[in-house]
Amino acid sequence: MKVIVIGAGLGGLLSAAKLSREGYDVEVFERLPIIGGRFTNIPYHGFQLTTGALHMIPHGPAGPLARLLKEVGADVEIVRSKPSAMIRIPRKRGDGDYKFGHKDLLFEDFRVPFSLINRLKLIFYVITTRKNPPKRISFAQWCTKHIDQDWTHRISDAFFGWALSLKSADVPAEEAFEIIENLYRYGGSGVPIGGCKGITDALVEVISAHGGIIHTSSEVTKIITISRKATGVIADGTEHKADLVISDIGHVATATLVGDSDSDKELQDYARMTEKLKPSAGIKICLSSEKPLIGHGGVLLTPYSKRVNGINEVTNVDPSLAPPGKHLTMAHQCVHWKDLGDLETEIRLGLEDLQDIFAGREYEVLLIQSYSNEWPVNRAPSGADLKNRTPVSNLFVVGDGAKGKGGIEVEGVALGVENTMKDILGE
């Protein structure tokens, strides 16, 4: 069977690698001159920066992405971060050293700042809610109802701002508890050796080894359908027939490529659903330093910052991502939809945060990157993803607009691809 994949991002490459190994005739069309989309490296002054995602896998070598990479035979090493995450909080009088005005807690000790009564409430409500999470309310609303302490909202916003580029008020409680469940199930973060490109390069090797073809600088302008069945695409003015079409460009762009739906109510409804999706947005600030700013390969969550949600320093695990004698540190901050019109202010506040967080340390700002609109953090905010199936027979959507439930970023992409493969292969 012939499969055409639209887009060579992580979801498209995972799908192409899996199906090429299963004996399908796979052809990938990518409109950009590079492979990987928002999941690859940018060489910059000797550093390996990224086009989007950080050089970090949320569940390390035990999560859904690592599982799928192993399944398709991709040669990737993912090193578990130790610690997986720390939380930076202000010091209180009597805490000892005031040099930097803060102390770091292990992520597992996030309960410490709670009052005693709220620690007991937390244990009770998390245990009773994990298996039956509430519907139609946000995680922030759940917190306000059960554990309404300033720390609850700070640590929730920092975690979800880092993990999903969303505020806790924009994360459905049901999705939040599925994410918590996955943290228990798979554990914390890890760093892929070679960064994001180490993964995409390995997937390209798998695809090529099994006869798959990847075209770059080649744009698909239409998905051909007959009686609501996908039969191929038009790319660069040429028709290419297919038995299956998998889109890695999100539901909105996919619905546009399907074309005229004036006479088809189901396609009209699909197009309307896609228009309601609001891509999540964020800002990444990349720093260079001669000495480590964090000193470990995990995440540093910053719940007391004005904007920055978390920071990682992957060169403590993979020094090859920076020139000899240098470290690469990357800070991420969620940008709320209401603030998209003033990114300059958001960037300024993020830079001020870093001056506070790394007071007394020497570093250089390498690059500031913003992600929104057609180049977002996620095409669909977590918890609002549409399913991988579409109303068009044999047309599927994968990627960050169709993530699996409870999947943080690329883990969600992998879960969505697994769901799609089950549909296609009947596994």
Features:
Polyamine Oxidase, Chain A, domain 2; 3 domains; 11 helices; single chain; 427 residues; five-stranded parallel β-sheet; FAD/NAD(P)-binding domain; globular
What this model shows, in words?
The chain is an alpha/beta fold and 427 residues long. It folds into three domains: 2-79 and 194-276 and 382-425, FAD/NAD(P)-binding domain; 115-186, Polyamine Oxidase, Chain A, domain 2 (Alpha-Beta Complex); 281-371, Polyamine Oxidase, Chain A, domain 2, CATH 3.90.660.50. The protein is built from eleven helices and 19 strands. The protein has a seven-stranded mixed beta sheet. The protein is globular. The two termini are 17 Å apart.
Outline:
The protein is built from 11 helices and 19 strands. It is an alpha/beta fold and 427 residues long.
Per-chain topology:
Layout: E1 2-6, H1 10-21, E2 25-29, E3 41-44, E4 47-50, H2 64-72, E5 78-80, E6 85-90, E7 102-106, H3 116-130, H4 139-146, H5 150-164, H6 173-186, E8 190-192, H7 195-209, E9 213-215, E10 220-225, E11 230-235, E12 238-241, E13 244-247, H8 250-258, H9 265-275, E14 281-289, E15 299-301, E16 310-312, E17 327-335, H10 343-357, E18 364-371, E19 395-397, H11 410-425
Parallel strand pairs: 1-2, 1-13, 2-9, 6-15, 13-19
Antiparallel strand pairs: 3-4, 5-8, 6-7, 10-11, 11-12, 14-17, 14-18, 15-16, 16-17
Helix pairs in contact: 1-2, 1-7, 1-11, 8-9
Which H/E pattern describes the elements? EHEEEHEEEHHHHEHEEEEEHHEEEEHEEH
Unreliably modeled segments = 94-99
- The share of residues in helices is 25-40%
What is the number of E strands? 19
Count of helical regions? 11
Question: Which CATH architecture of the largest domain would you pick?
Answer: 3-Layer(bba) Sandwich
Number of separate structural domains: 3
